[in-house]
Amino acid sequence: MYNIFFYKDKKGNEPVKEYIISLKKKNSKDSLIKLQKIQDYLNILRENGTRAGMPFVRHLDGELWELRPLKDRILFFAYNGNDIILLSKFHKKTQKTPLREIKKANKLMKDYLERSNENE
Q1: What pTM did the predictor assign?
Q2: Hey, where are the domains in the chain?
Q3: What mean pLDDT, rounded, does the chain reach?
Q4: Would you say 50 and 66 are in contact if contact means Cβ atoms under 8 Å apart?
């Protein structure tokens, strides 16, 4: 069993959590389908971690992985053995994951690791 945490920036913003909350608020059929699929995939991630494999998760680069519900992508990394940190999300429009999204997630991961080391 894995613990799932949302990345929180210095200002208290949690991009992935805020996206999930926005889907709940929209209350449209499309949003509810997306929300259910994300919740299902998060449960699979919680149970299996990165071993869930395709079509649920895919390794991207270095420590980065992507959760793959429908056309949404949630970038994450594993931390301290059983912790998974959800960093960012985007809507996939092309076959290849955009480099800017990978760079953004790497930057967020670096920020998370630096701040978590300060707190130890």
Answers
A1: 0.92
A2: 3-114
A3: 94
A4: no
| φ/ψ (deg, to 5) at 13 | -75, 140
Predicted confidence at residue 27, as pLDDT, reads 83
Alpha carbon distance 57, 36 (integer Å) = 17
The CATH fold assigned to 3-114 is YaeB-like fold (3.30.2310)
73: which 2 tokens?
């992508």
**4 alpha carbon, distance to own chain's centre:** 9
Burial-class residue 105 by CB neighbours within 10 Å (0-12, 13-18, 19+): buried
Q: How far apart are CA 41 and CA 54, in angstroms?
A: 11
The pair of structure tokens assigned to 6 is 């949302």
